[in-house]
Amino acid sequence: MDKNMIIKVCGMREPENIRSIAALGIDWMGLIFYPKSPRYVSQTNSKAGIIPDYPSFGKAGSAGKSEGRIKRVGVFVDDMPQNIITRVYNYNLDIVQLHGSESPVMIDNLRRTLDPDIRPGVKIMKAISVSDSDDVAKYKEYEGCVDYFLFDTSTPMKGGSGKMFDWTVLDAYDGETPFLLSGGIGPADAQRVKTFSHPRCIGIDLNSKFESAPAVKDENLLRAFINEVRA
What we know:
The chain is of the alpha/beta class. The protein has a single domain (6-230), classed as TIM Barrel (Alpha-Beta Barrel), CATH 3.20.20.70. The protein contains 6 helices and 10 strands; from the N terminus they run βαββαβαβαββαβββα.
């Protein structure tokens, strides 16, 4: 994978941890708005400090990436559209990540509501849970109505699993939509990430394997990993 890949760190919540991890040069930061998640961000006004002033320490960025600041991703699981809209507005989200069974019709309606009146240019990412190549084909239902896919490990529970899947099944992905690789990527996987290759893969999603506690990321682990994959 290209060393300039997008690095998304998901499951952030604590203000000081957000500030320290943002300073590592990541591209996207994920906030989870799924009440059953141990990383759930309860409805808090952004001025309370949950979302610090990203531009003050955002990286320079490049075309298609940070554009001067870290992009904010909100993660939702089969939530009511009004709840999603409220959080996009309150947290100034750049990307809506849908991690449930949301339909293409729901996604189209959500985009029309958000863009341009509430959040011009908002992007939508659909998570696809996979365990084999047949699961990968589920993307076809959403091709053309989302901006990104996120391929994650299939699990009976909604949301992320913290477990890795066999990345070779993504050879079956022949869509046009760019995607992020997710699912249990940990500190020991830097070389595996670097050697993974797919023409539509633009980045990786990191979460539980870099935590000292739910929603608290280990700054040293992440720094070492990022330095290795960027080298």
